[in-house]
Design a protein that fits this description.
Blueprint (H helix, E strand, L loop, with lengths): L5 E2 L5 H10 L4 H4 L3 E5 L10 H16 L2 E5 L7 H10 L4 E5 L7 H5 L7 E5 L13 E4 L3 H18 L7 E6 L4 H17 L4 E6 L8 H13 L4 E5 L4 H10 L3
Parallel strand pairs: 1-9, 2-3, 2-4, 4-5, 5-6, 7-8, 7-9
Helix pairs in contact: 1-3, 6-7, 8-9
Length: 250
């Protein structure tokens, strides 16, 4: 039988832009609001944060009349220059997309532009060494989403064992706190639904969240070990896992 590959995308960037900018002022001055969306590696078609933040920016342009621009980040070395370029170009709100902006770029750039507001998606402000007051972090309760996915996976494999086995698995891109919370929730939900289920967890050791080959290899190993359902908490890296699942009819 065919089990399902479970993936999760967090659709919060659009809400952030709509709510945050709506409070800035009335319709008379909204046209002057400039918002920059600085992506992480993976492009706008990553089926994750980059794509969703872009959707939010476009929505804000249409509904709130703001002026928006996207800065595409292709390599880790471009994160800091892109933040700087956005601030230097007069964008009053700069959205830094992804947890990796927490480890250096926001600390390095934000203090130099005190009149610019920065928002870090998946960024824990308390983890910033300089604690810049013009930065806000937006985080999510990943463990709750992971729990729901795990519960469904546990029930599915209980009712429909894969090749006679009740094994499910999860793939994390790496062990940053956001990913480990996803995985912890997934495991807890699966065990709640089915205490006899075996939950295999592996990390692809992809610091970029974009190396699809690593997630594909990790997922293939799990499928070969008997997993009938695989949860990818790995950003664009997880697209490689989806490919592996499709090839194996999972």
């Amino acid at each position: 039988m065919k089990s399902r590959m479970f993936t999760l995308a967090i659709a919060a960037a659009a809400t952030l832009l709509a709510l945050g900018l709506a409070s800035v002022g009335g319709a008379s001055n909204q046209a002057t609001i400039k918002v920059a969306d600085v992506t992480d590696i993976g492009g706008l078609n990553d089926k994750g944060f980059n794509h969703l933040s872009y959707v939010g920016l476009v929505r804000a342009e249409k509904q709130l009349g703001i002026q928006g621009r996207v800065y595409i980040t292709n390599t880790a070395a471009e994160r800091k220059p892109n933040l700087q370029a956005a601030a230097q170009s007069g964008y009053g709100l700069v959205i830094a997309v992804g947890v990796l902006y927490e480890f250096g770029p926001l600390d390095d750039v934000a203090p130099a532009f005190p009149n610019t507001k920065f928002v870090g998606i998946d960024v824990d402000w308390s983890g910033l060494s300089k604690k810049p007051t013009n930065v806000r972090g937006v985080q999510f309760k990943e463990q709750e989403s992971g729990y729901l996915v795990g519960y469904i996976a546990g029930l599915e494999i209980k009712l429909h064992p894969h090749n006679g086995k009740k094994i499910i698995s999860g793939v994390g891109a790496n062990k940053v706190p956001d990913i480990t919370r996803f995985i912890a929730g997934y495991r807890a939900g699966a065990k709640k639904a089915n205490r006899h289920v075996t939950v295999k967890i592996d990390y692809a050791n992809d610091p970029t969240f974009n190396d699809q080959a690593k997630c594909k290899e990790t997922t293939l190993n799990q499928i070969q070990a008997g997993s009938g359902i695989v949860f990818e908490a790995a950003g664009a890296c997880g697209l490689g896992g989806l490919s592996a699942a499709k090839q194996n009819h999972i």
